[in-house]
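Chain A, query sequence.
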Amino acid sequence: MCPLSRRGFLQRGGAAAVGMVATGTTGAVSGAMGREPSSRNPDELAEEAADQVAILFDSTLCIGCRACEVACNQENDLARSGSDIYEGQPSQDARALDVDVWSYTTFHQVEADDYTAAFGRVQCMHCIEPACVSSCPVHALEKLGHGPVVWHSDLCLGCRYCMMACPFLVPRFEWDKRNPRITKCDMCARRLADGQPPACVEACPTASLQAGGRGELIDEAHRRIEEYPRLYVHHVYGEKEAGGTNVLNLADRPFDDLGYRRDLPERSYREYTRPAMAAIPWTLNAVGLVLGVSAWVFNRAAEISGDEEGGEP
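Chain A, predicted structure.
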């Protein structure tokens, strides 16, 4: 089979692009992305998400045993074994989310002479209105009605927009695979469907991880703060950050010291991602138009050249 020439590429690409425009394919994408962004404040979002499943992490109860990580790996068939998890120190700087690391525990020693351990936790925050979902042009990421954010392999294009959009830098991509996946914590959606708690919650020996309705967990978090005002920071991380998340955190020291982002707005990130994604259909139409015109010009030039050659004596 002969290689495809530049003219052949333009002819085929132009025909395909014109076909897309003619059949309304880009219009369908435009319709899918044409949903109006949310203008609701965190209180309104919280009311809507009150019955969704959430996880409350109380760092004052965490002993850093990392049983949650072992359970996560076993439940999701991740490559890391139990021995791999316990290699090295669980410091914030030494670890990161990866295709085989969907969650992990962090150890913090804020002052050099402070021997009191402070633990944090990194995982998908399962935002009420996730930026990863609103940035995906084909809806490969979905926010389920009961709380988890999940990824659909049969829809994913591999564009990795979700990785760029996530304010918590959670989604990871299998760069070394021929058929790569986006990987992230899905809050054990299969277990939730069977009426079981997430594996990490079930494995925690100190109940530092607790699952339940988001509204109930927020009430519980504020109850603990009110009961022990000198112990806890008077803030529930995730209650309003990025419009609110389904993973909530309590701590006995500033969240900055535990590696949590504190520069996030209270507005949902869907309001930021939607205008950019709405431009994609127009871009597709523009590319289709350029290829179509280019194909016509090349075809017309070929016809004229053929007529001139045929008319020579």
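The domain at 42-267 is CATH 3.30.70.20 (Alpha-Beta Plaits). The CA atoms of residues 57 and 249 lie 5 Å apart.
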